[in-house]
Amino acid sequence: MPINKIIFKREELYERIWAMPIVRLSKEYGISDVALAKICKKLIIPRPPRGYWAKIEFKKNVHRPPLPNISADTPSEYVHIVYPMHEYDVRVDPAIQESLFVKRNIVVPSILDNPHHLVKAAKSILERNKPSENGLLYEHRRPCLDIKVTPACLDRALRIMDAVIQGFEAESIVVSVESGLKDSTTASIKGEKISFSIVEDYRRIDHIPTKEDKVRSSWEIKRYDYHPTGKLSLNIIVNGAYVRLQDR
Fold first, then answer.
1. Which H or E element spans position 42?
2. Residue 146 three-state SS
3. E strands, the chain, where?
4. Is the dihedral of CA 155, 158, 160, 162 positive or negative?
5. Cα gap 68→218, rounded to integer Å
């Protein structure tokens, strides 16, 4: 899958974070201000305090702390990976579309670091589950994020889901989880209840009987073979409208 990398060098980011408000700077990078603030924290970069830019505007004296020295085990740069997505069949209020990241790239970190508690719980549950007949992991007995992927894609799916949830909560949108196979992960945006999931695509083909099948009862022989593709989709349903963001 084609991806883009954004490399944040510590000294360069320090200079830029003190040159303009983080909201403006994050837009230049194409990521959220919450994500950029986390990167500064990882690289131990001090950020302007609340009210700093207002003081600048009114030409008041301000203090800019120097970039602190770091130990040898602290990274001097950080790599953010952007997974491009396609959009499909979008018939949703524009204000809701913006909150759903339909017009934006979803920025996903390279590792699952300090995940949201719902993502952490889903990781614990899904890692213990066995794949279903189609090769996908999922959970329907207990409340769990709606993720249906192969074990090989679980880490990536969790990182994408974590980025989506963190993005929602940065806009004061609360995500909740219910038990059940359908619509188990929900959020309320602009008064509309939405459900969303991450699913790995797969191909289903008719099963060709093997030598082993010849000694089995007919009901024991599977009808189809499933071939997961490794491509993930973020599926969103709001008020009957369907939005599908898919790996390129």
1. helix 33-42
2. coil
3. 4-9, 77-83, 85-86, 106-109, 147-148, 175-177, 185-189, 192-206, 224-238, 241-247
4. negative
5. 70
Instruction: Name the DSSP class of 151.
Output: G
For residue 171, give Cα distances in angstroms to 10, 33, 96, 157, 191.
27, 11, 12, 22, 14
**C-alpha 207 chain-centroid distance:** 34
User: Which tokens go with 44?
Assistant: 């131990």
Give the tens place of pLDDT for each residue, 207-226: 777 878 777 776 667 777 88
d(CA 66, CA 106): 32
Q: Which of 26-40, 71-85, 220-234 has the weakest average pLDDT? A: 71-85
Rg (CA), the chain: 22
Q: Are 125 and 110 in contact (CB under 8 A)?
A: no
| Single-letter amino acid code for the residue at 119 | V
The single-letter code of the amino acid at 113 is D
With H, G, I as helix, E, B as strand and everything else as coil, classify residue 191. coil
Which strands sit side by side in the sheet containing 106-109, from one edge to the other? Answer: 4-9, 77-83, 106-109
Tokens standing for residue 235? 């599926």
Q: What is the residue type of 124?
A: S
pLDDT value at position 158? 95
Tokens 């992960």 -> residue:
185
- What string of DSSP letters covers 89-132? ---S-HHHHHHTTTTSPEEEESS--S--HHHHHHHHHHHHSPP-
CA distance linking residue 88 with residue 245, whole number of Å? 7
